[in-house]
Prior knowledge:
The complex is a heterodimer. Chain A is mainly alpha-helical. Chain A has 12 helices and no strands. Chain A has helices at residues 6-28, 33-58, 66-83, 88-110, 115-135, 154-172, 175-185, 187-192, 197-220, 233-246, 251-267, 273-289. In chain A, α3 runs antiparallel to α4 and α4 runs antiparallel to α9 (197-220). Chain A is globular and about 55 Å long. Chain B folds into 2 domains: 1-79 and 170-261, Rossmann fold; 91-169, no CATH class. In chain B, α3 packs parallel to α6. The longest helix of chain B has 20 residues, at 119-138. Chain B is globular, with a radius of gyration of 20 Å. The N and C termini of chain B lie far apart (47 Å).
Amino acid sequence: MGYFRSKNIAIFLVIIGIYFAVDWLLEEGIITKFQQVNLMLLGINVILATSLNLIVGFTGQLALGHAGFMAIGAYVATIFTVKLGQPFALALAVGSLAAALAGVLIGLPTLRLRGDYLAIATLGFGEIIRGLAVNIEYVGGAAGIMGIPRLTTWPWLYAMTVLTVVAIKNFINSTHGRACLAVRENEIAAEAMGINTTYYKVLAFTLGAFFGGLAGGLYAHYFYLIQPSTFSFLRSFDILVMVVLGGMGSLTGSVIAAAAITLVNALLQDLALLRMVIYAALLVAVMIFRPQGLMGNKELTLNILRPRGGADRGIVGD
Amino acid sequence: MALLETKDLTLAFGGLAAVSGVNLTIGEGELVGLIGPNGAGKTTVFNLLTGIYRPQRGDILWQGRSLVGLRPFQITQLGLARTFQNIRLFGELTVLDNIAISFHWHSRYSLLGAVLRLPSYYRHEGEMRRRAEELLELFGLKQYAQEKAKNLPYGEQRRLEIARALAARPRLLLLDEPAAGMNPQETQALMDFIRWLRQEFSLSILLIEHDMSMVMNLCERIYALDYGQVIAEGPPGEIRRHPRVIEAYLGEEVALALAGA
């Protein structure tokens, strides 16, 4: 047990390897401008999908306001860089923390609600954030903020994406993550086993919001421009689609689905209107043939290479 | 001082008095039964004791301290753990994780320790795993450790629920119809198991059960409940002959038998 197990070293080497491989491809110009945009979008979508999965898939709270947290992160980070001239790292951190704070404030009252009621309440929250952005002149109103410096580079994006996935994975595979899973499985039993369910629901919501805000900050500093309409409820649904498609409660599923949806969107770009039809048809097909999502609630791990006794892997002491 | 004491415990749902004026006492190390016909309010009493419902009148004293107004998880942390009449396991999680979740509230590493995988994480996680496996071994469930809880046979699910409750380290264990759906042999085995549990973990136990022979053989003291009120209290021999119990509970069966049902 410890940091330096062969499995951890292998994963570390793969992560480093991917970084330098992509970095080299960018340097050599093998990755085109168009592909580069999609690469950035892919990383941002991975952060969004895994952080929403923490709330929806692992803790079982159907929340539809993720774009709201993304918006808070984007606007706050942009204010820090553009208006206040602060460094990017600080802007990202403050943006994420602001989103996390919003997560606590929204979570405390709304997480008493269950299922569809919570979905409606969080949907409303997302729209309120968007409405606020439209009506605050300081952040440009409906026109948004333009001319944001492009500070989200490949190293930043990659580091933040890896950080998010590893942090969420470590959280889930701990006693705190198990408490969240218990809430999802049976709230009454979780409470009866000594778990403060309110605390863990709000905690999951807050962590999810934090990373949603991080994704927003990265997004704003790549695409030059943020507008309230960028963060409409349609984006919340997009993120939810990734979570459901990948499998609720599968982190690797979210990563795969976020990558797949980004790629499909990019590949179908030329088809214009037909794109949405094919995209929708693909989603319907997946939901018919794999209603539990691509990965169900299983994880893709290195253990897959080893034969196991057919039973599902536990998460204790992983 | 009694371990647990209720005074004039009362709860009504709308106009229906589910529990009214119930006084229970459970001493250290006692094995007490709670019986009564369907709808008598037994499970409601459990839900009141564990904080799922809040009494409208009366008090619940745990070693002299009132439990009224505490959340269920706080009551568990004081030393009351329960099982459920309709099994409530964490179905999609492994048997081992089901146990580990009950260890949660005495886990000793922080959120930061978990996310950064500090040495405390590895140390305590290993310790929790070892203790969970010990408990499963003791309950004869070790071979299922990596199985999803929902895939266990019914009897094993009941046993896992008791194991999970014990993992929360209670001093008083509340068992809600542990023998439901069991045949006589299984019930017999369960009785031996409950006796052994009490010794092994030095527990007090409050038991709801429909199986009369089980309650009569197992419990030292029995409370009989009907329409939310305690109609009799005493050792099994007395309860068996108590006219109001026969009328309310056993009489019902006799009446049905006579009617040819």
